[in-house]
Design brief:
The complex is a heterotetramer of chains A (105), B (259), C (390) and D (357). With 259 residues, chain B is of the alpha+beta class. Chain B folds into 2 domains: 150 residues, no CATH class; 80 residues, no CATH class. Chain B contains 7 helices and 14 strands. Chain B is elongated. Chain C has 2 domains: 167 residues, FAD/NAD(P)-binding domain (3-Layer(bba) Sandwich), CATH 3.50.50; 163 residues, D-Amino Acid Oxidase, Chain A, domain 2 (2-Layer Sandwich). In chain C, 31% of the residues lie in helices and 25% in strands. In chain C, the strands form 4 sheets. Chain C has an 8-stranded mixed β-sheet. Chain C has a 6-stranded mixed β-sheet with strand order 9-3-2-13-20-19, with helices on both faces. A 4-stranded mixed β-sheet of chain C has the order 1-12-11-10, with no helix packed on it. The longest helix of chain C has 19 residues. Chain C is globular and about 65 Å long. Chain D is α/β, with parallel strands linked by helices and 357 residues long. Chain D folds into 2 domains: 226 residues, 3-Layer(bba) Sandwich (FAD/NAD(P)-binding domain), CATH 3.50.50; 121 residues, FAD/NAD(P)-binding domain (3-Layer(bba) Sandwich), CATH 3.50.50. Chain D is globular and about 65 Å long. The mean pLDDT of chain D is 96. The chains are: A mainly beta (105), B alpha+beta (259), C alpha/beta (390), D alpha/beta (357). Chains B and C meet through helix 5, strand 14 and helix 7 of B and helix 5, helix 9 and strand 18 of C. Chain A: Keywords: Oxidoreductase.
Chain lengths: 105, 259, 390, 357
């Protein structure tokens, strides 16, 4: 199942991943499993989703680049609010995440 | 106490290892690091001068306890034990991978470049299942490999070589500034034709570095590109004036609203 | 540098005024050299918004000059190789109370009489034009001729065009002295060497006072700081340039339109907002006297933000990614200082445009070209004479 | 109408190794110390360093970064340091005010002294395809695997054979990714041989003298083209992640905003605020420490933090100058030892040039 494909459940140094509460978020309407306490961008990676937005001008696909809230490449529309840094915003059950699709002509 | 560094000590380790395990230290760069010395209760590891000196081993007093192997941040200390005889040696390596390596199972012994040396039996596993601890694995290999083994791999295959391809002809264009999507070709055109003296002027006009990320990622490459394209002028290119906010902040926040 | 340079005309200052003067002079075939202490647009022209606000001009010669300038604009833009992002979008001036609205109405009458189309909008009409305006706004003055432009691209465009016609632009070149003999400008001493020239235009903006000292003339221009916030880029959401009536109050020093709050008066706070072609919204602004200091301050940033939200509530959800401060070349009455200097032949002033440099650049450039080359101008510039003061 | 402004004694910006050590030293001699950090956890980069650290026992050598972070943080808490997390400093102003975006509101503080310990940010390279999803900073991959416990992909190519590139490659392997190679334009390994050794013995080839040409893919990274500088042959790596570990640059924009004199030093990662060996900048009372003062090792950051803490405490009147000088000298001696190796030579020279300027 895609849910665990990219999750590191066992780690030689960090040990076994503690089971967080599973929640469900929606990416462009499609349900994605996530774990409470993780940022949206991480949950998307875990589900194998790498595209966080299309760039405003050329509508090129972009993905998280820094994961610490600086690059703004992971900005998505979250519960209607645009430009939310998904690498620093934690998932909430039922959250609706949309992929921005560029806006410049 | 005397001790020898690097490969000088290896002969001694080889000699003494017929009596039991001895530490083999493969650390010869001057790294500011001394936990091995601190960890050795025997006082067999000594840094001659300051913490950058490569550790010297006194093989005579080394009892092969392996504490230095477990703590070495460079994972550069091993144990060699030839006491079992019959042309075999046991080599102990630090291990922090998550491959399932079982006691009694077979694994690859590899050298420092990852080359296959021998397939051997794992005769000892310590620290397994204790996250945060460095495992020590002992593998049995033909004696001639004893000084060469640097790793044990449960994954017994080699990476495929990358394919060689025809060189690509033209360099594709790309966004130099990720946010404002200023093309590389456009930027260079601006740099070479604009005759800007300073980085702030180049930024003002090209807009590279004026995006949402506040130039976090392109400002330093903008500087390099600017200097590379205008090499004839030996000068300070003046840095950007920094003004608040250095992180994006909601206007409502800035206006003093809570929440 | 030991080379002796020479030029028919030397323009001190590579801002929008200097660039416009160079552009028009070159059109007439003059030999021009711009000397710029730093880089083009390093001063006020590179640290302002793109407002081409006609309705905020002082009624009379100031507004007349502005109308002449705006009439020249399309022709210049047509001619430039760099797109200055000119957008004849119209401008709204918002009233937060009935008194302000009344004042705007009274003013609109006079402005119309002076030849500028302006319309007073009630809340309903305003809502149609600016749907998400605050409910607190009582009405607005709408000027269809108001516009916006990218001041940096505009300046560079004219400078580049002038260069194409032979103008020389020396950057990083500070003027150290101006040699006057027999009551005539002869030479400009700069950090890049001496330049022989019999005609010098001072378009040095806030640096003009220093330049004036070199010829023992007091040019009463001082820096007036304006702070601006820049938001993240977004899709087009603000179709017009927008300002508050208090902006006009602080700009033109109209008692009736000044803010009520003491701190706001001290900061010279007035609301402006425009969205640039790149999508960022520039939110202003202040009018402060702080010498040559260009720091943005927590107090002003906070005040600008709070003020903007009062006008356009939705704006509060935008991220501010930058702030900057520009220094306007302030003149005591807000009007530019243009024309010759008594007793120093060949020295011309084109400075003190206060916050109107971008708007007035075109006509200033044209007038300077006329003045320098023909000795007379097609428009009477006596209202802008240095000698109106005192 | 303006924002209220809170008076503080010592403000430390950044709760990484330098900031925590600075706070500790100052608090230990009686200063009232406040630390702010934009992250929701203290420790800075230590929080994702799962490898054991070099150094000596003073720097927690032999321990993992995550353990050191916890210890340093715990020590600060014991001394009553006021730690404010999830709080980004937005600006340092010439009137002494500091603007902070705190969890619920914007606030202004006016501290008697400020230590800027904001660390460094990753440098990048711009090349065709660098905007494709899957191309990321090595630090981003490290954050994903070690903090969020999620792999960024399954086949990774690393650019940069410095310590960061090597360590993150190793950690990607630990996390279960396949690392298809480490490439570097340099002709020799830039990081420590021991780190290279750990990676290579896992079968990861290091391609020296190789240059990144382009990253390709339609909706995300699929392949990377790399050219051998010497003969121009081009290799194609199938990869879904390309990590860039091409150095760090000091994150010192707050010091620059405060008009601290800035100096360009390539060996230290770029522009750094000028400072003396006592970590005072050209603007009193602003101090700098750690990577923000020039990119070096975490152990160096800790010692510099301690010195900055002592200098600030001295200027705030919590330490007399004789005592402060003595303490600084003891730490300076340890710093000298840390920087004695050949790997630090360039940085040491740059620091000495800086002190002298």
């Amino acid at each position: 199942m895609a849910f665990n494909n990219f999750r590191i459940l066992q780690h030689p140094v960090l040990g076994e991943k503690k089971n967080g509460k599973e929640v469900r978020i929606f990416l462009d309407g499609l349900p994605i499993h996530a774990v409470e306490g993780e940022p949206i961008a991480a949950a998307l990676y875990a589900a194998g989703v790498r595209i966080t937005r299309l760039s405003p001008h050329k509508k090129e696909p972009r993905g998280a680049f820094c994961m610490i809230g600086r690059c703004t490449e992971c900005c998505m529309i979250v519960d209607g609010e645009p430009n939310v840094r998904t690498c620093r915003t934690m998932v909430r059950d039922g959250m609706r995440v949309e992929t921005p699709r560029g806006w410049m002509e | 106490m005397q001790g020898k560094t690097g490969s000088e000590s290896w002969q001694e380790v080889w000699d003494k290892s017929v009596n039991g395990p001895r530490a083999l230290i493969d650390c010869w760069q001057e790294i500011p690091c001394d936990p091995c010395q601190e960890a050795c209760a025997q006082g067999s590891i000594v840094l001659s001068s300051g913490i950058c000196a490569p550790p010297a081993l006194h093989a005579e007093t080394c009892n092969g306890c392996g504490k230095c192997v477990a703590i070495c941040p460079g994972m550069a200390i091993f144990l060699v034990d030839r006491s079992i005889g019959s042309g075999l040696a046991r080599v102990t390596v630090p291990y922090e991978m998550r491959d399932e390596i079982r006691l009694g199972g077979e694994a690859w012994a590899v050298d420092g470049e990852g080359n296959y040396l021998a397939e051997g039996r794992i005769t000892r596993v310590s620290g397994a299942g204790r996250p945060g601890r460095t495992m020590l694995l002992t593998i049995e290999v033909p004696e001639e490999w004893a000084l060469k083994v640097r790793g044990v791999r449960g994954r017994r295959k080699l990476l495929e070589e990358p394919e060689e391809v025809e060189a690509i002809e033209a360099v594709e264009d790309f966004a130099f500034c990720r946010c404002e999507e200023i093309d590389y070709s456009r930027l260079r055109e601006i740099i070479t034709q604009g005759e800007f003296r300073s980085l702030p002027a180049l930024r003002r006009f090209s807009r590279a570095g004026l995006g949402y990320c506040q130039g976090r990622f392109c400002q330093s490459i903008l500087r390099s590109q600017f200097l590379a394209d205008c090499p004839e002028e030996d000068r300070e290119v003046e840095s950007f004036r920094v003004r608040a906010p250095v992180r994006p902040v909601k206007l409502s926040r800035l206006g003093g609203e809570d929440g | 540098m030991d080379d002796v340079l020479s030029s028919e005309v030397v323009i001190i200052g590579g801002g929008v005024i200097g660039a416009a003067a160079a552009y028009f002079l070159c059109k007439e075939g003059a030999e021009v050299m711009i000397v710029e202490a730093e880089d083009l647009t390093a001063g006020a022209s590179g640290a302002c918004d793109g407002f081409l606000s006609l309705q905020t001009k002082q009624i009379g010669s100031h507004l007349d000059l502005t109308l002449e300038s705006m009439a020249l604009l399309p022709g210049i833009i047509e001619d430039l190789d760099i797109d200055p992002e000119y957008n004849p979008c119209g401008g709204l001036m918002l009233a937060t109370n009935q008194d302000q609205l009344k004042e705007l109405k009274a003013r609109a009458k006079k402005v119309k009489a002076a030849g500028l189309e302006i319309e007073i909008l009630g809340t309903q009409e305003l809502k149609e034009m600016l749907p998400e305006v605050s409910k607190e706004i009582k009405g607005a003055a709408y000027c269809p001729s108001d516009a916006q432009i990218n001041p940096i691209a505009f300046t560079l465009g004219m400078a580049q065009k002038a260069q194409g016609m032979g103008a020389k632009i020396i950057k990083g070149c500070k003027v150290e002295n101006i040699v006057v003999t027999n009551n005539r400008v002869r030479e400009v001493h700069t950090t890049a060497g001496s330049i022989h020239s019999r005609r010098v235009i001072c378009a040095a903006g806030t640096g003009s006072n220093e330049i004036g000292k070199m010829i023992i003339v007091d040019i009463p221009v001082m820096p007036q700081k304006g702070q601006i916030l820049v938001t993240e880029a977004r899709e087009r959401m603000l179709d017009r340039i927008v300002s508050g009536a208090e902006y006009l109050g602080t700009k033109a020093n109209l008692d009736e339109l000044l803010p009520k709050d003491e701190d706001a008066i001290r900061l010279g706070l007035g609301f402006t907002a425009e969205q640039t072609v790149s999508g960022n919204i520039l939110i202003g602004s202040t009018r402060e006297f702080a010498g040559f200091d260009k720091e943005t301050t927590p107090e002003a940033m906070n005040a600008i933000a709070k003020n903007a939200i009062n006008y356009l509530p939705w704006i509060k959800n935008l991220d501010v990614i930058r702030s900057f401060a520009g220094l306007r070349p302030y003149s005591p009455d807000g009007l530019p200082i243009m024309g010759p200097v008594k007793g120093v032949k060949g020295f011309y002033m084109a400075t003190g445009h206060s916050g109107d440099g971008i708007c007035l650049a075109a006509i200033t450039g044209k007038l300077m070209s006329e003045l320098v080359l023909d000795g007379e101008t097609s428009i009477d510039i006596s209202p802008f004479s240095l000698y109106r003061f005192k | 109408m303006s924002l209220p402004c809170e008076q503080l004694d010592l403000l430390v910006i950044g709760a990484g190794p330098a900031g925590l050590c600075a706070a500790y030293e100052a608090a230990a001699v009686g200063c009232r110390v406040t630390i702010v950090d934009e992250n929701d956890k203290a420790g800075g980069q230590l929080s994702k360093q799962i490898h054991r650290f070099f150094g000596s026992s003073h720097h927690g050598a032999g321990k993992r970064g995550i353990e050191i972070a916890e210890e340093l943080f715990g020590d600060c808490l014991k001394l009553g340091v006021d730690v404010r997390l999830s709080s980004s400093v937005l600006g340092l102003f010439s009137n002494g005010e500091v603007m902070i975006d705190a969890p619920t509101q914007l606030c202004l503080v006016n501290p008697g002294a400020v230590i800027v310990a904001t660390g460094a940010s990753e440098k990048s390279l711009a090349f065709p395809g660098w905007t494709l999803p899957g191309v990321m900073g090595a630090g981003a991959a490290q954050t994903l695997i070690n903090i969020h416990r999620i792999l960024p992909g399954s086949r990774v190519l690393m650019v940069g054979s410095g310590n960061v590139g090597l360590i993150v490659s190793y950690q990607l392997l630990q996390a279960g990714a396949e690392v298809v190679g480490v490439v570097d334009t340099a002709g020799s390994i830039s990081g420590y041989q021991v780190h290279a050794g750990r990676v290579r013995r896992e079968g990861i080839p290091v391609y020296l003298g190789h240059r990144l040409l382009s990253a390709r893919g339609s909706t995300g990274l699929e392949e990377v083209l790399v050219e051998a500088i010497e003969d121009g042959t081009v290799k194609r790596f199938e990869a879904d992640v390309l990590c860039l570990a091409v150095g760090m640059s000091p994150l010192c924009d707050l010091a620059a905003m405060r008009d601290c004199r800035m100096v360009y030093e390539d060996a230290l990662g770029g522009l750094v605020p000028w400072h003396g060996a006592d970590m005072r900048t050209s603007q009193s009372p602003v101090y700098i420490a750690g990577d923000a003062s020039g990119v070096e090792e975490a152990s160096v950051a800790m010692e510099e933090g301690r010195i900055a803490g002592i200098s600030a405490a001295e200027d705030l009147g919590s330490l007399n100058s004789g005592e402060a000088a003595e303490r600084r000298a003891a730490i300076a001696k340890r710093l000298d030892e840390l920087r004695a190796g050949p790997h630090s030579r360039g940085k040491l020279a740059a620091k000495e040039r800086l002190y002298a300027r």
